[in-house]
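Pipeline run #58 for the internal structure catalog. This entry was flagged by the ingest filter as a single-chain record with no existing model, so it goes straight to prediction. Upstream metadata was stripped on purpose; only the residue string is passed forward. Reviewer on rotation: M.T. Logging verbosity set to normal.
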Amino acid sequence: MIRIHPFPAEIPPAEHAARVASVPYDVVSTQEARELAEGNEASFLHVVRPEIDLAEGVDPYCDAVYGRAASNLEAFRQQGLLNADEAPGIYLYKLTWRGRAQIGVVCCCEVGQYREGLIKRHEFTRPDKENDRVRHLVETGTHAEGVILTFHDATSIDELMAEDMTSPPLFEFTADDGVEHALWRASDPEAYVSAFASLGALYIADGHHRSAAAERAPRTELRTTGDGSMSLETLEQDLDHDGNEEFNRFMAVCFPASQLEILPYNRVVQDRAGLTTEAFLERLAEVGTVEPVTDPVPEERGEVRVHVDGSWYRLRFDPNRIDRSDPVGSLDCALLQDLVLDPILGIADPRTDQRIAFVGGIRGTEEIERRAGAEGIGFSMHPTSMGELLDVADAGLIMPPKSTWFEPKLRSGLFVHRFTGSRSCAS
């Protein structure tokens, strides 16, 4: 039984929503965030990428950055850019992009259900990025960005959403990227609580690091080290909690699975591991058929487009190497990792190897070419399907990192969850 909870969301006034709304912290670099926020002190990038308010070149993981996040967030509250709802609520968030709409239920979920596996994951997390999100939570006492969860379509939830969206939204606007955003307050939050209780599971679509950080934050303390800097200490056991505290819940937006669209998550390796172009292509031919192409976008599962030395090639994996009964091993990203990245290019752990970068499909294949340059190798992937994602999660298995890129992204700053009361995250 899935348990969701209403919460008193902090929401920008309608007249400020478009200015406050920002892209998520993890889809832009520091420089890109600076440029997007330039001239807009209301941009929520000042909270989720606070290093933009410090000197260029500052370490984005230094103490001053997290302190700035907390002070900027408090300034937003003082300036009336975020106002707490009067009572705990459930909200509906609609995003419309390229003629497609997806509608999510904004609520709080339980870290306990994440631990128990009722909120299912399909990726491991990178330790550095997870620690970053834990520190942000501990310093701000706020879930500033929601996790995207999905569930098998349920008529009862569809009907509730349709009814609530007949009323006027709290706000609606079109962002610079053309995505339309609208938010409603549900008329009967408990009806959603009851409807979700009939679900057997929720699935993390996007936000594995935020989910893992939310689970750790209630048992994490911020301590001063000998040199005066701050460090995180995660306690082995839970603190004196009963599980119902706000800090034992995390903010999520839950979408029906049929409404979500996955784009490719492409890869770029910065070098050729000492191989010439000819030697690299010869190694590729050992795992499948290789031929020059002009179109950089794969047409179907089982193939990858490879950019090397200014040209594109199609790599079709040998069908005899693909076990379609294995929900993880048969994924294109897993085949690439197992047959190319590890044995040929020496990328044994893509979660920690600094030689590999990941490029969301929204950036296009031109970004792959740019990042690969003259010395690197780019890989244009076929997108993972929602069915593949659910199959992997249901099997209790883990995809290779960065297997999915969801679009459109949630805009940050349109709703946040302030939590209080833990020893590590006091108000």
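catalog note: The first helix runs from residue 17 to 20.
catalog note: The longest strand covers residues 100-110.
status: ready for reviewer M.T.
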